[in-house]
Amino acid sequence: MRLFLLPPAGASAGVFRAWPDELRARTAGLPLDTVPVELPGRGTRIAEKPLTSLPALVDELAREHTPEPGVPWAVVGHSMGALLGAAWAARAAADGRAPEFLVLSASAPPWLYSTAADLIGTDEELWQRVDALGGLPAVVRASPLARRLVGRVLQADVTAAARYRPAGPEPVGCPVLAVRGAEDPLVDAALVAGWSALTDRGFEEVELPGGHFYRSGLDDLLPVVAGRLLARPGAPGAPSTVRIRTDSARDAEAAPVAAARLLAQLPARWRTDYRSTDGAEVELHGYAPDEPALRSAVARALGDPALRAWRLSGDGGS
What we know:
This protein is of the alpha/beta class. It has helices at about 20-25, 55-65, 80-95, 125-130, 140, 145-165, 190-195, 220-230, 250-255, 255-265, 290-300; strands at about 1-5, 35, 75-80, 100-105, 175-180, 205-210, 240-245, 275-280, 280-285, 310.
């Protein structure tokens, strides 16, 4: 499986630097080639002029990266990267070379709404709006040179995304998983649901804690993508799933920390991961022998005093 990663506006492939090793660890035993895509004008291609046309970027993706027939592939795109991923997948599907699945993160269907249009403005206005979304690393904010370099790419990308308004959805020929942050000011749940028009092969929505860049950045998507890879045909069996809940708003805010502590107590060979369904409920899934075995192991792990606010969903009257 070749997994292509498409960054948000203004970003380089470096935002995915942790992904190859992390996905390899989370999907142990699965053949996986993780490919963070570098777009013009940034990272290793910083000497090139950034493009202000999203179709031109899609042309490049299709020409340079679409695998040869018979090679399984998939795409993960965040924000502008999701627009690129959907358009690229549709182009490939029309040529009979559709990906196996598509993950669209923090983006709205461009035929319904342009989130990039909300960001358009002077360089300073654009900078402030993207910074407010949590999309600018501290090292970039603190360096005038980095601001100039990132600023030219950011302006080009936002212009390209804002101009891209297709008349309607184009089928991608594969399952689609759409992800949003529960507090994302740009992308609400109704817009995310609109991505379902891309496919008749299966559509799923996932909501993660946090805003447009989630709580900790794009790495928060890793459990979701790893779970999707492990659910592919040919992966070692279907995952078992259980849920845990808390009635404490404070503990719900720290759900990822609690989930990580719990998972550390489960057998590594089960390759268990988590997915937050809302702040108060966390879905755990992994390759335990069966669901009762996973549920029993989770119940034992919840004996940890640090997890006393959590219980198995379905217990205690819920």
